[in-house]
């Protein structure tokens, strides 16, 4: 990564949103691989994989959008999927399906992605 995307800003490294959402999906897939092979673990894991990987795929789709409306629609879907991911991560923690510090880290990342994607929507819809 080059340019301003790797500069320090307020003590945090800034990442390209497509790369960040891709890495979020990778981390989700790895976490789900640790879930127990019970009915609950499999079903919650399936939901989390769908939502968590959809954040990045919709961000990628937004970048290829044919219009501003198409771009905004895909970013809104990515934001919705980040919120859903946060829900399933909270479910894993609350139900005690897995005790792993990555759950908290991914929950925090999902929240940050929601805020970032909301900011992109706001910026893109300003006239």
For this structure, the CATH topology is: de novo design (two linked rop proteins)
How confident overall, as mean pLDDT? 90
Q: In terms of per-residue confidence, which ranges show pLDDT below 50 for 5 or more consecutive residues?
A: 1-14
Helix content: over 70%
Structural class: mainly alpha
Number of helices: 4
Largest sheet: 2 strands, antiparallel
CATH architecture: Up-down Bundle
Tell me, what is the CATH class? Mainly Alpha
Radius of gyration: 15 Å
Strand content: under 5%
Tally of DSSP β-strands: 2
How do the strands of the widest beta sheet line up side by side? 1-2
Which short descriptors sum up this protein?
single chain, 74% helix, mainly alpha, two-stranded antiparallel ribbon, disordered N terminus, 4 helices, de novo design (two linked rop proteins), 127 residues
Descriptive notes:
- By secondary structure, the chain is mainly α.
- It has a single domain (15-125), classed as de novo design (two linked rop proteins) (Up-down Bundle).
- It has four helices and two strands.
- The protein has a two-stranded antiparallel ribbon with strand order 1-2.
- It is elongated and about 50 Å long.
Task: Write a concise synopsis of the structure shown.
With 127 residues, the protein is mostly helical. It has helices at 17-32, 39-63, 68-95, 101-125; strands at residues 8-9, 12-13. Helix 1 packs antiparallel against helix 2 (39-63), helix 1 (17-32) runs antiparallel to helix 4 and helix 2 (39-63) packs antiparallel against helix 3.
């Amino acid at each position: 990564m080059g340019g301003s995307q790797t500069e320090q800003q307020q003590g945090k490294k800034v990442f390209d949103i497509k790369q960040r959402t891709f890495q979020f999906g990778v981390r989700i897939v790895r976490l789900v691989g640790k879930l127990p092979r019970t009915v609950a673990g499999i079903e919650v894991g399936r939901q989390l994989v769908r939502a968590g990987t959809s954040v990045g795929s919709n961000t990628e789709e937004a970048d290829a959008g044919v219009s501003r409306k198409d771009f905004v629609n895909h970013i809104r879907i990515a934001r919705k999927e980040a919120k859903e991911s946060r829900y399933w991560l909270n479910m894993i923690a609350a139900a005690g399906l897995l005790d792993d510090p990555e759950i908290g880290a991914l929950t925090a990342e999902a929240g940050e992605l929601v805020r970032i994607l909301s900011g992109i929507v706001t910026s893109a819809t300003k006239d």
